[in-house]
Amino acid sequence: MIFFWAFVIGGLICVIGQIMFDVFKLTPAHTLCTFVVLGALLDAFGLYEPFIDFAGAGATVPITSFGNSLFHGAMNEAEKHGLVGVVTGMFEVTSAGISAAIIFGMIGALLFKPKG
Question: What are the transmembrane regions (predicted)?
Fold first, then answer.
């Protein structure tokens, strides 16, 4: 049942994004920012963790999880280090994913020749 809900919830998030493109004529940048902010807001109100518990990968794979991670990391470090922790906490929590994207993007660029 875990896989079913992950598929359904992840799919619904994608459908919402597609509706934002098609109906509201939002650009990919606007849609991306909206989902990141939505993930951060849901975490601020304590709603994203129960959402992850219910949907599993359906909630952790989409970009909303990035907003959740940014906010969660910032608040955890703010408790320890104050205002400086807000900035450093965001980087500490998300650095592995960002680093992986950069590294794998570089490897892909070296191994494959783009058509264009």
Answer: 6-24, 31-48, 54-71, 83-112
